[in-house]
Amino acid sequence: MARKSLIARDKKRKKLIEKYAKKRAELKAAGNYEKLLKLPKNSSPTRLKNRCMISGRPRGYMRYFGISRIEFREMASRGEIMGVRKSSW
Questions:
Q1: Strands of 6-79, DSSP E
Q2: Residue 81 CA to chain centroid, in angstroms?
Q3: Strand partners for 62
Q4: What would the CATH number be for the domain defined by 50-89?
Q5: Is-contact 37 43, C-beta < 8 A?
């Protein structure tokens, strides 16, 4: 489990990105990079890190499901993900 502070920080960044998305797009289109630099650093979409919704793990993230590979495997074994089941032969 990731530290709670990292998960909270990522949520805060996500809010800032949504808040400044329109303004950022307008400034980029106009080519006004001076004002773009004055926006908060955390409002840049490149600063957002994909994290597992359940554990907060940043690595092994599966974008389609929004969870880490470890959580995916456990949930697939328990049959909690529709259309996915553990294969055996």
A1: 61-62, 67-68
A2: 20
A3: 67
A4: 4.10.830.10
A5: no
> Which residues have a Cβ under 8 Å from the Cβ of 43 and sit 6 or more positions away?
16, 17, 19, 20, 24
DSSP 83: T
Instruction: Output the pTM of the full model.
Output: 0.73
Contact of 11 with 56, CB cutoff 8 Å: no
Query: What does each C-alpha distance from 70 to 8, 48, 54, 66, 74 come to in angstroms?
Result: 21, 21, 10, 12, 6
Contact call for residues 62 and 69 (beta carbons, < 8 A): yes
Tokens of 62: 């599966």
| Per-residue pLDDT tens digits for 19-67 | 999 999 999 999 999 999 999 999 999 999 999 989 999 999 999 999 9
Cα distance between residue 74 and residue 55, in whole Å: 12
Q: Delimit the domains of the chain by residue range.
A: 1-49, 50-89
Amino acid at position 2, single letter: A
